[in-house]
Design goal:
Blueprint lengths: L1 H12 L13 H14 L43 H5 L13 H19 L1 H7 L6 H7 L3 E2 L2 E2 L6 H27 L7 H11 L1
Antiparallel strand pairs: 1-2
Length: 202
């Protein structure tokens, strides 16, 4: 309680140092617009040159966040096709439910590429959620005796912390150098490889 109160006071005292950003459009709205626009333009043919897709010039502040076009999930590119009827209406704002920018299309593609990783983490979080919910009930139902000593059910959650503290140095000192020799990666394994190995051992 004391540390929570102290952290809250630090949070309030530092509010002038925070970087505030005005609220933008909802990501769910943008993703829905891309899907709807692609469905409406499904009869249009994709151009061979991606530069003809709707990609309005960005301001200098937005140039750093530009997204490069990819060929994966090309059916979503139809949301950025400028139809002949749209070209005739110069100077008239087109509804984002009919025409989306290429950057919005690429953002939706990124979400789709993340879906397999999200799906693979479901089992992991189903198991780890028990460490903060039903672990004490499980400890009360299991045989917690080690010889003549009985492990208190409320202390079972500490084994996860102790195991992590012990295994991380071993991983960094022993396993990372071995993996670095085998893969050539500076960190031993790439992040997707770490996820795959961890889920396999789980």
């Amino acid at each position: 309680m004391i540390l929570t109160s102290l952290s809250f006071m630090v949070f309030i005292a530092s509010r002038r140092m925070y970087r505030y950003k005005s609220k933008g459009e909802s990501p769910m709205t943008t993703a829905s617009q891309v899907v709807v626009a692609a469905a409406r333009n499904r009869h249009l043919k994709l151009p061979e040159d991606c530069t003809t897709l709707h990609y309005p010039p960005s301001s200098p502040s937005e140039a750093t966040f530009s997204v490069q076009h990819t060929t994966q999930f090309r059916f979503l590119d139809k949301a950025a096709i400028v139809s002949p009827s749209t070209q005739e209406k110069k100077g008239v704002a087109t509804s984002p439910w009919r025409l989306c920018t290429l950057s919005h299309v690429e953002e939706v593609k990124m979400l789709l590429r993340l879906c397999p990783a999200w799906a693979s983490l479901l089992v992991f979080f189903m198991i780890t959620a028990q460490m903060s919910s039903t672990v004490i009930e499980q400890g009360m139902a299991m045989d917690n005796r080690v010889g003549s000593f009985a492990v208190p059910p409320a202390s079972l959650a500490s084994f996860n912390v102790v195991t992590t503290l012990v295994l991380i140095p071993i991983y960094e000192v022993v396993l990372v150098p071995l993996a670095r020799r085998a893969t050539g990666e500076d960190r031993g394994l790439t992040q997707p490889q770490r996820l795959g190995v961890g889920l396999t051992l789980l």
